[in-house]
Design brief:
Blueprint (H helix, E strand, L loop, with lengths): L1 E5 L2 E3 L5 E8 L8 E6 L6 E6 L6 E3 L7 E6 L4 E6 L8 E9 L2 E4 L3 E5 L2
Parallel strand pairs: 2-11
Antiparallel strand pairs: 1-3, 3-8, 4-5, 4-9, 5-6, 7-8, 9-10, 9-11
């Protein structure tokens, strides 16, 4: 299982970023996919989940209405569109899959929201 995340960067409050996660090494279309984030000194937290068919999506209360998770099963990719960014959204963002009793993570992409 391998993930390559991209799209992070420095953005001002109120701005937008789109994260991408390219997956390989497993049957991508069969699994729910998640985005997590971790801020310095804090635990990793779940941001959004999308089911294998993209029909069901769930979000953390802190990002609902601002972030949109999506996926492209033909491209083996999952995305996170982040709008109206706040300073508290800063952190390292990871894509994740739970497969056969184990969690698999990407290397993460840094998002910094600062004026």
């Amino acid at each position: 299982v391998r993930f390559v995340e991209s799209g992070g960067g420095l953005v001002q409050p109120g701005g937008s970023l789109r994260l991408s996660c390219a997956a390989s090494g497993f049957l991508f279309r069969a699994y729910d996919m998640s985005w997590y984030r971790q801020a310095p000194g804090k635990e990793r937290e779940l941001v959004a989940v999308i089911d294998s068919t993209a029909r069901r999506k769930n979000y953390a209360d802190s990002v609902r209405g601002r972030f949109i998770i999506s996926r492209d099963n033909t491209a083996n990719a999952v995305y996170l569109q982040m709008n109206s960014l706040k300073t508290e959204d800063s952190g390292v963002y990871y894509c994740q899959v739970h497969q056969r009793g184990s969690d698999y993570w990407g290397q993460g992409t840094q998002v910094t929201v600062s004026a």
